[in-house]
Amino acid sequence: AAERVPQLDRNCLALAEQLRRHPLVDQVLHPSDCPNFQALMRPGAGHGCLLSFTLKEDEATVERVYDALRVSKGPSLGTQFTLTCPYTQLAHYDELAWAARCGVPSHLLRVSVGLEDPKDLWQRFELALEA
Q: Within 13 Å, how many C-alpha atoms sit on residue 29's CB side?
């Protein structure tokens, strides 16, 4: 775990930076951008392996990207392999209007980044975004 956690942290940050540069991506939510997270972060700690993102396009595009994404699908985190899920749909299916009022869109995708090679992982996301 002592070696794995920093690698997960680096891989997640690398994916967040790549997603931010993609023209189809509207917003990337990563702990490095959160002042509250920064205030509570222990010295020398990382940001973790989770990020979320939204796309500029409609929900049909989100579904297409999600379906084309060649990673495991599921709501877990911290695995050796990357997982993606439509978090708001899973966690708040009966409360989508409430989630939207709280600023959480129904089409948000959550990613738990794994230990894959960052270049390989980005290629998978890039192919899905271009699908």
A: 16
Asked if 122 and 17 count as a contact pair (C-beta separation under 8 A), the reply is no
Strand partners, 109: 53
Global pTM reads: 0.89
Q: Are 122 and 15 contacting, i.e. CB atoms less than 8 angstroms apart?
A: yes
Q: DSSP string spanning 17-58?
A: HHHHHSTTEEEEE-GGG-HHHHHHPPTT----SEEEEEESS-
pLDDT of residue 1: 61
Q: How many helices (H) and strands (E) does the chain have?
A: 6, 5
In this structure, are residues 46 and 7 in contact, taking their beta carbons and an 8 Å threshold? no
Among 5-14, 19-28, 51-60, 97-106, the range with the most confident prediction by mean pLDDT is: 19-28
51 contacts 111 by C-beta, under 8 angstroms: yes
Predicted local distance difference test score (pLDDT) of residue 41: 63
